[in-house]
Amino acid sequence: MNGSAVFETRFPNLTLRSRGKVRDIYDLGDSLLIVATDRISAFDVVMPTPIPDKGKILTQVSAFWFDFFKDLVPNHLIETDATRFPDVCRPYEKDLAGRSMWVRKAEPLPVECIVRGYLVGSGWKDYQKTGAVCGIRLPEGLQLAQQLPEPIFTPSTKAEKGAHDENISFDQMARLIGKDLAEKVRDLTLAIYQKGAAHARERGIILADTKLEFGLLDGQLILIDEVLTPDSSRFWPADRYQVGSNPESFDKQYLRDYLVASGWKDGRPAPELPDEVVANTRARYLEALERLTGKGLEG
């Protein structure tokens, strides 16, 4: 697994629970080990070329935000220092360093919690067709990348592997998890976005939208998975933001734009990424880390 980029983790003494687009999750009994690889996906497709250090960047960004929001909502994080992981992880300490989180087991809610503060991406396409985003009516005459009058909560289902998430209404979410819990999740998602967006803006970054996940641990609602990373959020440099055009970004949008310009279509094998695209993508992720946390890459 050693090398400049990590595509897949292999730890023979650990039980692999699941392998997602980016993260490999190992079952440690009453806890989990989440290992962020350097894989990158776009349009729900994993690219064959990894982005060096991406997993470390994601882990460091999430750890920062888990601590930042700890007074707002508890979370599943136990430890990110691999030297403090359970003994069964000890043989892999070097490979786990910097890119792993030891976390509590929780029962994930069957929804993804999305908040949008700006009109962009699929929301912009939806608005152009219907005047609404995920069924939420918006004022007429809004432009691409314009800030919304107030952030909106647009949940989705968690798709099975290989499928796409589906947007659902708040009422549908309430039927899935119960009205009281749905209201608590919605309010927390909006509060996290607003607090995170304010911090990001102080660092010269606009947080356009983000996706969060929650779980239940002994009946308590907690924040899980990743938090406000370049994989789960749209980050724009505030000094280059302009309403009416697609802003530059510190996230996967650069890769998406490259793929569209290359002529690649979803459904065809994903292309190997040129060195320049890999380097530019890594640089964007790294700048997001440095600006948001005030620290460089560790580990």
From TrEMBL:
Extent of the signal sequence: none
Stored InterPro entries: SAICAR_synt/ADE2_N, SAICAR_synth, SAICAR_synthetase_CS
Entries under CDD domains matching the protein: SAICAR_synt_Sc
Biological process annotations from GO: 'de novo' IMP biosynthetic process
Keyword Membrane applies: no
Record carries keyword ATP-binding: yes
Any one cellular-component term (Gene Ontology): cytoplasm
GO MF annotation, one: phosphoribosylaminoimidazolesuccinocarboxamide synthase activity
Catalytic activity of the protein: 5-amino-1-(5-phospho-D-ribosyl)imidazole-4-carboxylate + L-aspartate + ATP = (2S)-2-[5-amino-1-(5-phospho-beta-D-ribosyl)imidazole-4-carboxamido]succinate + ADP + phosphate + 2 H(+)
This protein's pathway: Purine metabolism; IMP biosynthesis via de novo pathway; 5-amino-1-(5-phospho-D-ribosyl)imidazole-4-carboxamide from 5-amino-1-(5-phospho-D-ribosyl)imidazole-4-carboxylate: step 1/2
Protein EC: 6.3.2.6
This protein's UniProt keywords: ATP-binding, Ligase, Nucleotide-binding, Purine biosynthesis
UniProt domain SAICAR synthetase/ADE2 N-terminal: residue ranges: 18-266
PANTHER family linked: PHOSPHORIBOSYLAMINOIMIDAZOLE-SUCCINOCARBOXAMIDE SYNTHASE
NCBIfam families hit by this protein: PRK13961.1 (NF010568), purC (TIGR00081)
Protein family (similarity comment): Belongs to the SAICAR synthetase family.
Descriptive protein name: Phosphoribosylaminoimidazole-succinocarboxamide synthase
Gene: purC
